[in-house]
């Protein structure tokens, strides 16, 4: 298998608006996502980050260009891609364990295997003690962990996350970022994460795809090469020479592109 799992090739997306108008949300964007990597889509509001993610998820069709998964054009949602949204999407009437088992049940995984896999992924996100709890009783961060475990249990090749920690307080957000590093290391899953949080992008990404807004165009692909690899602790990334410089550069790009 090739080292590239996802290829976005000259992709554009226009939306039809009332009175015969249209809006170009994404304009001729191309980038590749290496297998097993964490790719972060970063850019100001309206730069087409969510639209690109939704095209990869198969929830939206591009107007031009190609979106390829393992060299095959994506033509709809599929089990090979898991999606985690900002809003909590757990089923409140099912326990954490049942929530994580749910997708596997739909996919015809046997009851035995389901339980084992659910336990494994619930353990991976640090919720073993809460396997029988109901999501409505859990904090926002814990509910997002349930959503992540549920997606991972379906063994997706790519985990797609749209502002997954946007609704969380700063401390929980930071814990969740560290958790994603752990999950990426333990599972080897490729991740594509949308955010407008610069710190989050620099800490998580093996590669940052920076987009400019209106229309969404690829501004620059940034490899945070000052990191010696993935770091378990966020403060260790912040302390590295090169961190502040990259943060400064991206803040400037955000200001220029976002019109601040
Ligand atoms: N279904 C739609 N119909 C019409 N316009 C849309 C639709 N979805 C997105 N857009 C427009 O496309 C542009 C890009 O939107 P998108 O949500 O992809 O940007 P984003 O970078 O994810 O923004 P944000 O960070 O604010 O979520 C925006 O101008 C948005 O209003």
From TrEMBL:
Thylakoid is among the record's keywords: no
InterPro entries noted in UniProt: AAA+_ATPase (IPR003593), ABC_transporter-like_ATP-bd (IPR003439), ABC_transporter-like_CS (IPR017871), ABC_transporter_ATP-bind (IPR050166), P-loop_NTPase (IPR027417)
A GO molecular function held by the record: ATP binding
Keywords linked to the UniProt accession: ATP-binding, Nucleotide-binding, Transport
Residue span, ABC transporter domain: 6-238
Keyword Membrane applies: no
Annotated signal peptide: none
Classification via PANTHER family: ALIPHATIC SULFONATES IMPORT ATP-BINDING PROTEIN SSUB (PTHR42788:SF13), TAURINE IMPORT ATP-BINDING PROTEIN-RELATED (PTHR42788)
Family, as annotated: Belongs to the ABC transporter superfamily.
The protein's name in its UniProt record: ABC transporter ATP-binding protein
């Amino acid at each position: 298998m090739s080292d590239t799992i996802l290829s976005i090739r000259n992709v554009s997306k226009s939306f039809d608006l009332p009175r015969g108008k249209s809006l170009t949300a994404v304009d001729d964007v191309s980038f590749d996502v290496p297998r097993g990597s964490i790719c972060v889509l970063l850019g100001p509001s309206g730069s087409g980050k969510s639209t690109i993610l939704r095209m990869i998820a198969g929830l939206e069709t591009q107007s031009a260009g190609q979106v390829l998964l393992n060299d095959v054009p994506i033509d709809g949602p599929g089990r090979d891609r898991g999606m985690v949204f900002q809003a909590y999407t757990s089923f409140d009437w099912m326990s954490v364990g049942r929530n994580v088992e749910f997708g596997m049940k739909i996919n015809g995984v046997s009851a035995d295997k389901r339980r084992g896999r659910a336990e494994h992924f619930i353990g991976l996100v640090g919720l073993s003690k809460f396997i029988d709890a109901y999501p409505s009783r859990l904090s926002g961060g814990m509910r997002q962990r349930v959503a992540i475990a549920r997606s991972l249990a379906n063994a997706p090749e790519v985990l797609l996350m749209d502002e997954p920690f946007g609704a969380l307080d700063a401390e929980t957000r930071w814990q969740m970022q560290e958790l994603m590093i752990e999950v990426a290391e333990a599972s080897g899953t490729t991740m594509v994460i949308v955010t407008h949080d610069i710190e989050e992008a620099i800490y998580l990404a093996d590669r940052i795809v920076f987009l400019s807004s209106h229309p969404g165009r690829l501004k620059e692909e940034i490899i945070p090469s000052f990191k010696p690899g993935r770091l378990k602790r966020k403060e260790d990334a912040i302390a590295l020479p090169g961190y502040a410089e990259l943060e400064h550069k991206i803040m400037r790009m955000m200001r220029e592109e976002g019109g601040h």
